[in-house]
Every structure is written in C-alpha cells, then in structure tokens.
Amino acid sequence: MRLPWKGLLVLGGCLVLWEILARQSGALAAYFPPASRVAATLIDIVKSGDLPPHIAASLRRFAEGYAIAAVLAVSVGLALGLWRGFYHLVEPLVELLRPMPSPATIPIAILFLGIGDEMKIAVTVYAGFWPILLNTIDGVRAIDPVLMNTAATFRLGPWQRFWKIVLPAASPQIVTGLRVSLAIALILVVTSEMVVSNDGLGFYILDRQRSFQISEMYAAIVALAMIGYALNRVFLAVDDWAMAWHKGLTRKEER
Amino acid sequence: MLEVRELKKEFQPLSGKPVVAIGSVSFRVEAGQFVSIVGPSGCGKSSLLLCIAGLSRPTSGQVLLHERPVTGPPEGLILLFQEYNKSLMPWRSVLKNVCFGLENRPGMSRDHVEAEARRYVELVGLRGFESHHPWELSGGMQQRVAIARALVRHPEVLLMDEPFGSLDALTRIELEDTLLRLWESLRATILFVTHDIEEAVYLSDRVYVLSRRPSRVIEEIDVKLERPRNQLSTREDPRFIQARHHVFELISREMAKE
After folding, report:
1. Which of A20, A42, A213, B19 satisfies CB 3.0 to 4.6 Å to A208 for a cystine?
2. Chain A residues interacting with chain B (CB cutoff of 8 angstroms)
3. How, if at all, do strands B34-38 and B215-222 pair?
C-alpha cells in the first residue's frame, strides 16, 4: 500500500501544533495537556491494565449490537425491497424514525431494559439499523428488470432467485449501508456508556473528566479514535476482497 | 411447434385510455427453423417476445409451445436480451455466467456443469477468457457469453430480442455467422427480433413483417437461399436483394402511415 505522505504530513503538523499550543496555554494547561504527555499516558494506562477492560467492554457491545443490526436490517430490507406494497405501508413510519437522532432512544431503553448491557446493545441496534435498512431496500429496488427476467427465463425458483440474483446484485448497496452503520454503532455504544454505565470507553472518558484526570481522558479519546479507524480499515479490507467485482465494474463505467 | 394465436397486448398508461401495442398477431414457427420478426420501431416486438417467453401476460390470445399454452416461462425456451450488460451477472466470471445456464438443472454434478460450460465458452470463441468478468469484455464478447449461457442449456427454442442491435457493424457480422454456425450444429429453433432488414433476410428461413402499432403480421416471406450463408455471396444473390427490397418497401410503407 502506498502511504499518503502529504496527508500524514498534515496530521503530523497538527500534532506538533497541539504540542506547542498546549505548552503555552498557561492557565488552561491543566485542561490541555500536550500531545506527548497524552501519548505517554495512553501507553501507561494500557500497560497498567487500566484501560483494556473498558476497551473490551465497548468492543463487545459494539460487536453484538452491530451484528444484530446487520442481520435484522438486511433481512427486513430485502423483504421490503422485494414487496413493494409492504414498503409503501411502512414508508411513512421509516421516514419519521430515520432522521430522529438515535441517542433520543436511550431514555426509553433505560425505562424498559434498565441500565445494563441490554439497553446499550438495544440502542446500538436501533441506530445501526437504519442506514443498512435503507441501503438494502434501495439496492434491491435498483436491480435491473432485465436481470430478473433473465432469472425467470432460466426458470429459477424463488429461493434460487433470492440467493443467486437478489442478494449478490444488492450486495454493493448493502455493504455501503454496513459501512455507514459501523461508525454510527460505535457512537451509540460510547454515548450510552456516557449516560449510564460502570465500564466501557464512554464511561471511562466521562469518569476521568469528572475526576480531573485530564490526560487519561484525552488518552482514552485518542484510543477511541484509533479503534474507529481500525474498525473502518478492517471493514474496507473485507469490502475490497468481497466486492472486487463491483469496484472493477464501477471503474469501468466511470471511464 | 411454436404458435402465436391472435395475440393482443394492451398497456395501461398512468392516465388515459389503454394503448394497444400489439393488435392481433398470429404466426407459426416450425421446429429447427430460423425465423425473424421485423417491424417499425415501437411496434411491440419486445412485448411480443416477453409474452412468448411467458414473462408477460398477453391481454388476449395465446402462445402455444408443442400445442400447450404458455402460462409461465416454459422449459426448453430461453429469451436472450439485447442488453447483455444488464443480463449477465457482473459478480460472476465468464465461466460462472455460462454455468448459470445449467445450475438449476436437477441431477447435474458441479463438475459436469463446469465441463459443459467450458465447452460452450469455446464454441462461442471465448477460450482463454473463462476467468474474466463480463465488464472486462467488449460488447460483442459479452453477447457471446450470453449466447453461450443460453445454448449450454440446449433450448429447443431460443428467442432473441435485437441481440446485436447495439453492436458495431463488423462485430455484428461476426456474431451473425457465429450464431448461424451454432444454430446449424445444435439444430435449435430460433425466433429473432430485429429492426435490421438485411440481418433478418440474411439469417432467416422466414421473415414476418409487422405493421405499426397496433401491430399485426402484414406479410410472411420465405427466404429461399442456400445454407451455409455467406456474408458476401449471399448478400449479393439477386434473391437476397429482391427479398430485402420487398421487406424494405413493406416497412417504409408502414412508417409513412400516420
């Protein structure tokens, strides 16, 4: 892989700027530790075993919530995409719920599910659901009628049509939805942990802020950014491999 | 073997009265024949093929295959589309696209399917391109994949909807001859829709000329030219020129009507 040198240079510049500004912040120094100290703290809290359990807790909630959201949204999306009448029935509901900021569901989830993992996973599922759902519906509805007619003239049964045509044809759009939801699911895990929790990165960040361990707070935020980045990278690698045909196809169409 | 009886097809636009695309079309295709349908654009040729393939319901009238009415996609009949780029599966390789033609045949092992597919990839002249994806190929090569995918299934009847309509002239000539060669060796029955008069005469045993909308058959022309046909000598044959002349006159007379 070629490194994006210019981009890395800008990133490096920002870190240097952070370092310089923090060292000259005077009265605000307590709230604004330099980058070097945050980095050292991050290494410390990872080595001492302070942070890892919280990372693990967040990642577990993320994995569970994201997986449930993916399975649920892809299934419902395929059904809604295939049965137009059904879609029209629920369209107003979808259009109302979709733009509502998902953290608003946290208080409701607490009422019904308490303050444990069930609540956090439930809100993560809810938030991750929408992008996958809408992209799946679009993907199915965009399948060309010629392709469906081809399936019909070769006398494919409904199941074969589903597995051999609908699912692969809609998969690039489904993957787009999955990618959007990846970031959203992580946001909801952290937000719900900030609202009420006794572990997880969201809890850790807020807890260290309240107890004036500001370096630790920043270190955990940096860790969170790195986790988000890593998750996205893993996703892109899988996407590159599974959707190679689609990338080739779209490159060809752009030419 | 294939008979279309007084087939009528109406479409309901979003507002207003229904549009009669096909007025009343009747014709027969005998086993092993190569039959073409030509007509002015918008005469419902594609709708006609969709009805024959059992993919669309005629408003009235019937399609009979071996004396039995067609109510859904029948076994032994394949419709090949003009839009090869939409009909092939971009996520499958050339070989896997051709395999698709046999995959839902019961009792065929995976190896057998693949061996047959390989054979047909070679027959259409795509040896060496098995692992390419359709979008890596030219239009003519893509249509060859679609032809292989249809023929690997050994259909009794192959319906072709302007299959070479979007190809350049030289590619089209090449594909016409490939198709004739395969048709002669496989003894399939082909019903070929085109707006190209010369192509229809060159390929066919019989040409049906359709009128403007609402369409009906205005004439059937038997083309009595020897086979195998040849792009030069056949097209220079006085009988070819005469048939082409006749069909051209019929269609331009149709197009002049308002």
Report:
1. A213
2. 144, 146-147, 149-150, 152-157, 160, 164-165, 168-169, 171, 245-246, 248-249, 252
3. unpaired
